[in-house]
Structures are given as structure tokens and as C-alpha cells.
């Protein structure tokens, strides 16, 4: 695979369903949120570059867990896998809520908070059951449905300028008159949400020509490309749809296309977005099951997640996962769909950042073990430090509630590791 192919693949992988509710969330801050996009783009590129280096020089399996093990041992491996798995559990509930939001707008339905919750649970179970056929079917469906988000997002980035009103954009700059630092911080978690998954961009190292040169270039280029599309699309919409309408919408891209063309076109866009959401959820539900399976194979998680059917699908693990997500959906019932989405995104970002920070800290020793040239290693370590500092800023910006629940989840992880630690720590000391 050449550098151009890998760059495009990286950008497409990041352009999942994370973008489709963002215009609404950013409208609550105003067009000042473009500053948040720029900060997140730089932070995400630093993280992506450091992950590219980790992937190239690490000789341990398990992705971020393997990276963390270099510096923090088996406990670091466990905590990276545990917090990443929890993050995906939460994130998939948010994706399901996005699909429900667009679905209610498409059908003109007005659901109660309980109705939204039941619909979300239904979407999660549907995506899970569809995965019982194995990875091949999931891959084929996801490869088609991703275009449901790419076409509208790229489309509005290119043609939306014909309907763009500079006056409307300026009037929406800071509608609530928040202090700049507070306004920028309040939307950092939302913008990072769109980039979650950037760590998976380094998974194709083995099939790339000259990976030491091309993987970092492709990862940075793909992240930058996704950033440009995200920034342009969300800011174009802010100049097409009035701020208050956008902030109260549960289907912002559908609303924008309805303003640009006709309500019928808006409904087509909503249908495409729903297709994309369900397809993305399908792929991510299978990914979660695989993450839990690999952790169970290593002895970190219960063995139920390791059991496979004839088509190599961890069905029992999937059922356990969707039951947990059902409980999570019930626990986060909120007065509005947007509120519930906001709570889940902040918590998903907090738990996802933990393995990011562990991986950034481990890059120093990963490069030492790989005997990387000191001058090259120093530059990569500086970039990893920048990525870590951005991660701490994103944690701070996620809010007190998300940090509190994230801390509880993380401390619970240490307790769980204590229960399984004898099989690793005693064995290691005997060796």
C-alpha cells in the first residue's frame, strides 16, 4: 500500500458517525468553536504521529495495551484495554442515540425520554444481532454504509458555500457571551469525539511500503484531511442555519440540506445518516467484542468473551456487552436526546483518553528498546508530550461530572486488576 492510499484510508476510517451530531453541540457554543477545532486538530495530529511511532517500534501485541506494558507492566496493559473497552461501550450508546435522533426527525416523531431510551436499546440490539454472522458480513455492510456520512459531509463542505451567509456566521460567534477560554474548553471534548479512533490508523503498518517514512506521513495527512473536512462542514452549516435552530436540532445535516434545497432532500440526507450510523454501530459493536476477546485471551477479562461460534463470532461476549449497554442507556436517561448524547460523549472521551496518556508515556521506552536513533527519538518524544498535554486539557474540559464518573470507572479498574493480578505478578516474580 502506497502513502496516498494509506492517507485516504486513514481519513475515511476517522470519518464515521462522530461528526453527525456535532453541528448541534457546537452551536451551543457558537462559531467561536472553530478555535476548539484548531486546538483539537493540532492535538490529534500529535497523538496520531506518536501512535504511528508506537505501532512501528512496539514488538508487543494488543495495540495500546501492548504499548502501555512497556512502561507500566501487566497492570498498564490491563488498564489500557479496560478503559478503552469501557470507552467503546459508552461511545456506541452515543452512536445509537445519534441514529435515533435522525430517525425521530425523519419520521416527525416526538419521543419521551423513556421512548428515546427504548429506541436506543432497540438499535443496539439490532446492530449486535446483525453481527452474529461474522466479520465478513459486518465488513461488507460497513464498507457501504460509511458513504452515508461521507457524501453529505463532503458535499456540504464543497457546495454549501453557495448558501453561506457571512452575516449569520458572525452573529453566531459567541451567542451566550462566554469568556473565550471557557467557550473554547466547553467544546474541546466534542471536537475530540470526532477524532476518536485515530489510534487505529496505524494498524496497517505491515502492508505499507517503507513504513518508517510513509506511516507517519499518512497518519498526519489523514488526520489533517479529516480535520479540514470537519472544520469546513460544521462551520459552513453555521452560516446556513440560524444558531438557535441548529442548537435545538436532532438532525443538523438534514436541517441544513432542507434549508439549501427542499425538505425532501433533507429527509434523504437524514436517511443516509441513519444508514451510516447503523453501519458504523455494526462495525464498532464487532470491534468491541474483539477488544474484549483479545483481553480475555490474555487472561484480563472473563473467559465468556473468548468463546467463538462456527463463523468465528464471539456471540456470547456480544450479548454480555449489549446487556451492559442496555443498563447504561437506562442509567443515562435525560430530559432531551441532546443532553443524553452530551453526557455519554464526555464520559466516552474521558475513558478513551486514559489509554492515550499511557501510550504517550510509554513511547520513550518503546524507542529505547527498539534502539531508535536518539535525535529521531527525541523529536517523537516531544510530539508525544504535546499529545499528552492536549489529552490532559481535554480531560479538564470534559467537565466535573464526566471526570468524576471517569475516575470511578478507572479506580474500579484497579480493583478488578487486583483480583486477577496473582496470575501475572506472582508468575512474573517466579520467572
What does this structure look like?
GO terms for molecular function: putrescine:ornithine antiporter activity; symporter activity. InterPro entries: AA/rel_permease1 (IPR002293), Amino_acid_antiprt (IPR004754), APC_superfamily (IPR050367), Symport/antiport_PotE (IPR027566). It catalyses: putrescine(in) + L-ornithine(out) = putrescine(out) + L-ornithine(in); putrescine(in) + H(+)(in) = putrescine(out) + H(+)(out). With 431 residues, the chain is mainly alpha-helical. It has one domain: Amino acid/polyamine transporter I (Up-down Bundle). Helices cover 77% and strands 0% of the residues. Helix 10 packs across helix 16 and helix 13 (252-260) packs antiparallel against helix 14.
Task: Describe the structure concisely for a colleague.
This protein has 431 residues and is an all-alpha fold. The chain has 19 helices and no strands. Its main location: membrane.
Explain the layout of strands and helices.
Layout: H1 3-14, H2 22-27, H3 34-57, H4 64-107, H5 113-130, H6 135-145, H7 147-159, H8 166-171, H9 180-186, H10 188-195, H11 211-238, H12 243-247, H13 252-260, H14 263-297, H15 315-331, H16 337-369, H17 374-397, H18 400-420, H19 422-430
Helix pairs in contact: 1-11, 3-10, 3-11, 3-16, 3-17, 4-5, 4-14, 4-15, 4-16, 4-18, 5-14, 5-15, 6-14, 7-11, 7-14, 10-16, 13-14, 14-15, 16-17, 16-18
InterPro entries: AA/rel_permease1 (IPR002293), Amino_acid_antiprt (IPR004754), APC_superfamily (IPR050367), Symport/antiport_PotE (IPR027566)
Family: Belongs to the amino acid-polyamine-organocation (APC) superfamily. Basic amino acid/polyamine antiporter (APA) (TC 2.A.3.2) family.
Keywords: Amino-acid transport, Antiport, Cell inner membrane, Cell membrane, Membrane, Symport, Transmembrane, Transmembrane helix, Transport
Amino acid at each position: 500500500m502506497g502513502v496516498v492510499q494509506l492517507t485516504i484510508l486513514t481519513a475515511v476510517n476517522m470519518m464515521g458517525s462522530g461528526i453527525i451530531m456535532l453541528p448541534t453541540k457546537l452551536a451551543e457554543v457558537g462559531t467561536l468553536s472553530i478555535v476548539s477545532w484548531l486546538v483539537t486538530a493540532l492535538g490529534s495530529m500529535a497523538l496520531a504521529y506518536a501512535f504511528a511511532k508506537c505501532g512501528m517500534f512496539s514488538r508487543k501485541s494488543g495495540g495500546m495495551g501492548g504499548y502501555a506494558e512497556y512502561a507500566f507492566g501487566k497492570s498498564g496493559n490491563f488498564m489500557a484495554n479496560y478503559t478503552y473497552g469501557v470507552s467503546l461501550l459508552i461511545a456506541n450508546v452515543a452512536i445509537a442515540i445519534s441514529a435515533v435522533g435522525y430517525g425521530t426527525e425523519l419520521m416527525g416523531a416526538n419521543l419521551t425520554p423513556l421512548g428515546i431510551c427504548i429506541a436506543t436499546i432497540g438499535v443496539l440490539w439490532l446492530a449486535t444481532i446483525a453481527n452474529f454472522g461474522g466479520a465478513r458480513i459486518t465488513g461488507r455492510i460497513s464498507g457501504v454504509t460509511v458513504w452515508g456520512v461521507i457524501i453529505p459531509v463532503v458535499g456540504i463542505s464543497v457546495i454549501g458555500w453557495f448558501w453561506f451567509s457571512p452575516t449569520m456566521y458572525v452573529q453566531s460567534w459567541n451567542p451566550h457571551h462566554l469568556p473565550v477560554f471557557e467557550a473554547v474548553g466547553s467544546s474541546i471534548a466534542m471536537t475530540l469525539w470526532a477524532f476518536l479512533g485515530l489510534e487505529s490508523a496505524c494498524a496497517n503498518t505491515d502492508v505499507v511500503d517503507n513504513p518508517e517514512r510513509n506511516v507517519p506521513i499518512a497518519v498526519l495527512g489523514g488526520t489533517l484531511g479529516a480535520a479540514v473536512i470537519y472544520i469546513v462542514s460544521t462551520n459552513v452549516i453555521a452560516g446556513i442555519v440560524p444558531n438557535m435552530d441548529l442548537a435545538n436540532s436532532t438532525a443538523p445535516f438534514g436541517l441544513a440540506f432542507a434549508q439549501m434545497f427542499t425538505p425532501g432532500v433533507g429527509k434523504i440526507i437524514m436517511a443516509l445518516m441513519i444508514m451510516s450510523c447503523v453501519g458504523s454501530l455494526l462495525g464498532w459493536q464487532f470491534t468491541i467484542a474483539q477488544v474484549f476477546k483479545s483481553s480475555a485471551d490474555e487472561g484480563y477479562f472473563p473467559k465468556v468473551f473468548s468463546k467463538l461460534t462456527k463463523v468465528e463470532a464471539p456471540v456470547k461476549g456480544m450479548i454480555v456487552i449489549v446487556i451492559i449497554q442496555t443498563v447504561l442507556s437506562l442509567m443515562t436517561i435525560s430530559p432531551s436526546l441532546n443532553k443524553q448524547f452530551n453526557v455519554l460523549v464526555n464520559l466516552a472521551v474521558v475513558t478513551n483518553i486514559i489509554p492515550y496518556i499511557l501510550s504517550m508515556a510509554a513511547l520513550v521506552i518503546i524507542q529505547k528498546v527498539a534502539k531508535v536513533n536518539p535525535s529521531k527519538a527525541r523529536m517523537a518524544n516531544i510530539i508525544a508530550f504535546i499529545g499528552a498535554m492536549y489529552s490532559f486539557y481535554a480531560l479538564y474540559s470534559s467537565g466535573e461530572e464526566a471526570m468524576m464518573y471517569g475516575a470511578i470507572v478507572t479506580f474500579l479498574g484497579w480493583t478488578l486488576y487486583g483480583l486477577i493480578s496473582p496470575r501475572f505478578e506472582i508468575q512474573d516474580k517466579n520467572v
